[in-house]
Structure formats: structure tokens, C-alpha cells
């Protein structure tokens, strides 16, 4: 059975927003058209993907599986289509993935000064699957933080970033100048595998509402500063390695040039 990618994109948008109205606005189509497309997709697959009520939209088990598959398939297809268009139009393009809080702009500017004819784009890498853009074709190189799955990748160490404890500004520890790991014993920590949040914004909302503390990279704390949160150094917390990553079998001159320039530039940031 051939899966209609347009319908899959419509479904993924509804699954993301959990709301037909907001999804329709995002897709620039009417809500009735969107509903018909989703029903048609369910009929083609022979299973129910969404449970609709007057107030909410929930995913069935099949819907959750399809959403997971769509999140991997759709970006790869979009990247492939862009590459085809680039070849057709004679465009050279370099796409760099970056972890939240890391700034790759200095390296891109330095690269552009040497290669003004090359288009450069960036794509954010979600913190729990930082290597994904390199594997699904959306990016050729990544500026990432460990840990991530580096199988099949070549990595170049860039630096080591300290971590800070992020907590509500009203937390009893927030008045301290610095902390140790022992000070956090007994605190509910949000950055553990069984409490994964879907975004940094969600994590910070949970922290600000008093639901826990998280150890985060210093650059993330600086990039997402807000008055209801406090960030304190944890003197004995291990740092986080930052690195450039690229598929091990990619050796194009353009990519080699970017890695050389980015290594020299980012190590001095």
C-alpha cells in the first residue's frame, strides 16, 4: 500500500497540536478538509489513529506509532526534495544541525567569507536525538553536545561546557552562590530518562512550577534566561563535551573546509 505523504503530514500536524483547529491554521487549510483527510488516511490504513472528543484529540496506540514513524520519515523526505531542487538549480548548500544553546553563527560567517557561493542553513537538533538530522539527511554536519549516538559518525572535540542547576527562583537553594552534588540529594530531578520532556520550554515550565530541578548546560541557561528561574553552578558536576559530528563516510571538500574553519572558530568562542 502506498502511503499518501500529504495525508501523513496532515496527521502529524494534528498529532503535534492535539487540536484540529490549530492544526488546520498551521497547514493553511480548513478544518473540514483536514478532518476528511484524516478519516481517509484511517480508512486506507484500516485502523483508528485519533480519538476525538469535543475538547481534545488523543492518539490511539496505532496513532502514536504512526506519529513516531512520521517524525522520522517526513523530515527525510523534505530534505531529499530540497536536495533534488538544489541539484536542478545548481545550488550548493551546507546544512548545520546544532544543539540547544550552542551558537554556530561565528563558524558559518567565517565559512561564508571563504565560500560566498554556498548557501548555508541551520536546523535545531532535539536534545534526546541530537544525531537524528545527520542520519535522516537534513544536515551534513552537527555542532552537538554529548551524549548522543555517535555510531557511524566522525567527531571532533570542541570544548567542555559546565552544567548549572536550574530551579525555581523561590527555591530555598536559590539564594546560594554555588552548589555541590550533595546539596541536590533528595531533590526531584527532571533530567532523568524516565522524565523526558518534549522541549526545553516544557522543562522550564515544569521547573518554574516547582515540579523539580534540572542540571543543564551553562549555554542553555544563558539562552533561556527568565526571571522565575535561578541557575547555580554545581562545582563537582562533570562538564559536557561539545563536538562537531559528521557521517564517517563523508569526505567532500566543502565539508572538510567547513570542519576546518568551524574547529578553529568554535574552539576560540
TrEMBL record:
InterPro entries: LysR_HTH_N, LysR_subst-bd, WH-like_DNA-bd_sf, WH_DNA-bd_sf. Residues 3-60 form the HTH lysR-type domain. Keywords: DNA-binding, Transcription, Transcription regulation. Transmembrane segments: none annotated. CDD domains: PBP2_LTTR_aromatics_like. It comes from the Bacteria. Belongs to the LysR transcriptional regulatory family. This is LysR substrate-binding domain-containing protein. It comes from Streptomyces blastmyceticus.
Amino acid at each position: 500500500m502506498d502511503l499518501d505523504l500529504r495525508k501523513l503530514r496532515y496527521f502529524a500536524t494534528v498529532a503535534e497540536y492535539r487540536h484540529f483547529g490549530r492544526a488546520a491554521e498551521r497547514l493553511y487549510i480548513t478544518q473540514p478538509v483536514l478532518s476528511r483527510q484524516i478519516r481517509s488516511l484511517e480508512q486506507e490504513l484500516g485502523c483508528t489513529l485519533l480519538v476525538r472528543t469535543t475538547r481534545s484529540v488523543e492518539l490511539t496506540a496505532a496513532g502514536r506509532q504512526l506519529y513516531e514513524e512520521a517524525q522520522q520519515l517526513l523530515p527525510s523526505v523534505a530534505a531529499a526534495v530540497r536536495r533534488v531542487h538544489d541539484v536542478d538549480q545548481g545550488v550548493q548548500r551546507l546544512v548545520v544541525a546544532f544543539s540547544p544553546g550552542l551558537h554556530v553563527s561565528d563558524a558559518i560567517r567565517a565559512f561564508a567569507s571563504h565560500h560566498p557561493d554556498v548557501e548555508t542553513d541551520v536546523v535545531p537538533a532535539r536534545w534526546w536525538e541530537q544525531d537524528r538530522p545527520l542520519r535522516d539527511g537534513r544536515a551534513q554536519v552537527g555542532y552537538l553536545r554529548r551524549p548522543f549516538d555517535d555510531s557511524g559518525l566522525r567527531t571532533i572535540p570542541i570544548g567542555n561546557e559546565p552544567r548549572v542547576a536550574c530551579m525555581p527562583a523561590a527555591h530555598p537553594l536559590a539564594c546560594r552562590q554555588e552548589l555541590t552534588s550533595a546539596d541536590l540529594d533528595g531533590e526531584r530531578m527532571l533530567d532523568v530518562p524516565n522524565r523526558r520532556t518534549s522541549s526545553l520550554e516544557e522543562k522550564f515550565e515544569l521547573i518554574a512550577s516547582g515540579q523539580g530541578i534540572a542540571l543543564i548546560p551553562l549555554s542553555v541557561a544563558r539562552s533561556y534566561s527568565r526571571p522565575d528561574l535561578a541557575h547555580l553552578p554545581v562545582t563537582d558536576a562533570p562538564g559536557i563535551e561539545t563536538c562537531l559530528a559528521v557521517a564517517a563516510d563523508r569526505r567532500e571538500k566543502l565539508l572538510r573546509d567547513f570542519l576546518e574553519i568551524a574547529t578553529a572558530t568554535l574552539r576560540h568562542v
